[in-house]
Amino acid sequence: MKPDERLENIAVALSIPRVERHIFLCADQSNPKCASRVITNELWRHLKSRLKETNMTSAPPEWQGEMDRDPDPVEPGQGTVLRSKVDCLRICEQGAIAVVYPDGTWYARLDADKLDRIIDEHLVGGRPVDELSFTTGDLKP
Predict the structure, then answer these.
(1) Could you tell me which residues come within 8 angstroms of residue 97 by beta carbon, excluding any fewer than 6 positions away?
(2) CA 95, CA 34: separation in Å to the nearest integer?
(3) What is the spatial distance between Cα 81 and Cα 123, in angstroms, rounded to a whole number?
(4) Which secondary structure element, helix H or strand E, spans residue 38, and what is its range?
(5) I need a labelling partner for 104 at 20 to 30 A (CA). Which of 59, 82, 86, 118 fits?
(6) Taking the chain (141 residues) in consecutive chunks of 10 residues, what is each chunk's mean pLDDT?
(7) If 0-12 CB within 10 Å is exposed, 13-18 middle and 19+ buried, where does residue 2 land?
(8) Using DSSP, how many helices (H) and how many strands (E) does the chain show?
(9) Number of other CB atoms surrounding residue 111 within 10 Å
(10) Could you give all domains of the chain from N- to C-terminal order, each with its CATH number?
């Protein structure tokens, strides 16, 4: 299988063609300023767990990242949310910080309860949690 075919299969397994939202969470920072690594890593684990339990994300194929391993066929993922852990979102205050696209809704001062509201209301329900948001920027020209 060609490298681009492997990538396409990974994208399909992760349900990238059907994704509706992508949440980026500042976590495991190399130089933590907005919140401690302990707090952000705990939130990252919480986010992963909640998205998995709500079936909002899809798992990558088992062979992902192992170029010597033959890629077994994979079923397309059914998730609608991608999640990414980022080193820094450049706000560096009042963290933990997250942003949800395509809406471009930015959230600060996150804890597990606030993150649950974002998951339930924004990621699942499609409505940004205005009282937790501090700004928006949807990247449209």
Answers:
(1) 25, 26, 34, 35, 89, 91, 106, 107, 108, 110
(2) 4
(3) 7
(4) helix 37-53
(5) 59
(6) 82 91 94 92 96 91 85 85 94 93 96 97 96 90 67
(7) exposed
(8) 3, 5
(9) 13
(10) 3-136 (3.40.30.10)
